[in-house]
Design brief:
Elements: H1 4-17, H2 21-43, H3 49-63, H4 73-95, H5 118-129, H6 132-143, H7 148-155, H8 159-180
Helix pairs in contact: 1-2, 2-3, 2-4, 3-4, 4-7, 5-8, 6-8, 7-8
Length: 181
């Protein structure tokens, strides 16, 4: 089902592809928060979030003229955000130090102004300890509320693979949460 945001996005993409810079600015206003939240959940870094998001928006603005179907913007933008997050994580892993806060599994960053219950803290901690592939699936499905078919498009894998990996990720998270309680 197409939402009002999807329709407005399609219109703005067509306008941007015709050369209207203001349309790109409006796209940024509409999509900045969801993409920023997604990138933060992937990386856990507030310090580097602005730099990563700048890379995301540069890639989006450069690729926008080649986007054939405006209805695919959401999937395309999330894929770019995912790829930039993965690039940042890889770069970070090569320069990581032993005492880096990201390596501390008990460090669970909260969103600004967020007051977390003990259950939420445990859930976030276990999510942060999961392999990136599993964490990414759970974040896309539960937090970003993407459908299985949308996740398949974002990750470039078959829907059946998404369902299978999502099942295993849920099971692993459930086991870990049961162990800690």
């Amino acid at each position: 089902m197409r939402t009002e945001r999807d329709i407005l996005t399609a219109y703005l993409i067509a306008d941007a592809q015709a050369g209207n810079v203001q349309a790109i600015n409006r796209l940024v206003r509409i999509w900045a928060t969801p993409l920023r939240t997604f990138v933060y959940r992937q990386t856990g870094s507030r310090e580097d979030l602005a730099d990563i998001m700048q890379d995301v928006w540069v890639a989006i603005s450069r690729g926008l003229p080649r986007l054939d179907d405006p209805a695919r913007f959401k999937h395309w933008a999330y894929r770019i955000a995912r790829n930039k997050s993965v690039d940042w994580i890889r770069k970070r892993q090569t320069s990581r130090t032993l005492f880096d806060e990201v390596d501390n599994p008990d460090h669970v960053p909260a969103e600004e102004g967020e007051d977390l219950s003990a259950a939420h803290v445990a859930l976030r901690r276990e999510l942060s300890r999961m392999p990136a592939e599993r964490r990414q699936l759970l974040v896309l499905f539960y937090l970003e509320e993407l459908s299985v078919s949308d996740i398949a498009r974002v990750l470039g894998i078959p829907e059946g693979t998404v369902k299978s990996r999502l099942f295993h990720a849920r099971q692993a998270l459930k086991r870990k949460l049961e162990e800690t309680s």
